[in-house]
Structure formats: structure tokens, C-alpha cells
Amino acid sequence: MVLPSLVDAAVVVVLLVPGFVTFITIRKFAALERKLSEIETIIWSVFLSIVVLLPFGLITGLTDIDKIRDGIFVHYNLAVLATLIFSIGTVVGVGYKRFFRKGIVPGEPWHIAFRIIGKSKRERSYAIVYTTTNLEYKGQVHYAGEYEQQKELILYAPVQIFRDEKRHIVEQMEVGKEMLFTEKDVSRIAFYDKLE
User: Fold this and answer.
1) What is the pLDDT of residue 145?
2) Fewest CB within a 10 Å sphere: which of 53, 56, 92, 171?
3) How many separate helices (H) and strands (E) can be counted in the chain?
4) Digit-coded pLDDT (tens) for 29-76
């Protein structure tokens, strides 16, 4: 039994990696965040490797395994391969997002909402926080956790709102200088430019 040489193993990797990198690039630009199984990832990677390697073979003349093994590591050929990978990935990803996923923004809604507030030109942003225990608070957004595990919100000058059965406000009570809400506390958040 003859073991494959290091060059043969490297060629196999080079034949599969272009599809995988193209697939990752497409997912990034198309804002596709659904988790895929390993088999789905492998199938898409193999398919996209074929899509990338067809024009690569036409451009470089490396059309069979022996030629690829001998010429793949030439700088020009690697540059062509990298250009094709990122060009195809970018064009397909951007096109897919433009025509099939308009308005889709990558990320979790929590982070997206606070990222938009952070980029806003408004000096202040306000929110009404509805808790999981059916309480209602309003105040100025002072801080929002941006880390994966830290979904927290601090309201400055928080006011608790009391409503009657018809949802009319019957009383408002100041509840300190700042109030921290953790992810498990929050049911919903409504954002405002100003609060009355």
C-alpha cells in the first residue's frame, strides 16, 4: 500500500478549501446565519469548489490533477485562485442578499437594535422596558451590553409606570438614579426619540 505524498495531500486540501472559503464568503455577504449540518457544509463546499475550479482551470491551464499538483503553488496561480474565490463569493453573496434577503441585517436583534442606537445622530435615546413580570419602566438608555453573553440594559432616571385595566397611565414613580435589566428580566423594549 502506497501512502499519498505530502504534495498529494496538499492538493486535495487545495481542491476543497476554495469551495469552503467561497461558501463562508457567500454566507457573510448574504447574511445567512442558519446553522448547517456538517454534511450540508461539505456538499456546498464541494459544489462551490467545482464552480471556482472550472474558471481557474481555464485561466491557468491547470485542467487535470497532475498539472494542478505541479503548478498550484506557483504565486500567479494562487493569486488567480484567491481572486476567483473572493470574487465569486462576494458577487453571489451580495446578489443573493440584494434580491432575496432585502432588509435582513446579520446578528441578533438585541445587538442590532443597540448598534443602531449607538450610530444614531440623536444625543439621547429613550426606552420603555416591559419586564417578564409584567412591570413597565421608562427612561434614558444609558448602557446596553454588547457581548454575546452580556445582554443587559441600564436605564438612567428610570420611572415605573402603573396602568389601569384600559392601559391608561394612572401613576408614575421614580425608582432611583439608574436601573439594571438583565436578559432574563426583559420581555420587550420599545425605543423612542423622546418620552413625554
Assistant:
1) 67
2) 171
3) 5, 6
4) 887 777 888 888 888 888 998 899 889 888 888 777 777 777 777 888
Residue 121: pLDDT over 60? no
SS (HEC) of 90-157: HHHHHHHHHHHCCCCCCCCHHHHHHHHHHHCCCCCCEEEEEECCCCEEEEEEEEECCECCECCEEEEE
In this structure, are residues 95 and 158 in contact, taking their beta carbons and an 8 Å threshold? no
pLDDT number for residue 83: 92
pLDDT-based confidence at residue 87 (cuts at 50, 70, 90)? very high
Residue-wise over 162-172: b if at least 16 C-beta within 10 A, else e?
eeeeeeeeeee
User: Can you give the residue ranges of every domain in the chain?
Assistant: 6-100, 109-192
Report CA 182 to chain centroid distance, whole Å. 23
Under CATH, which architecture does the 109-192 domain have? Roll (2.30)
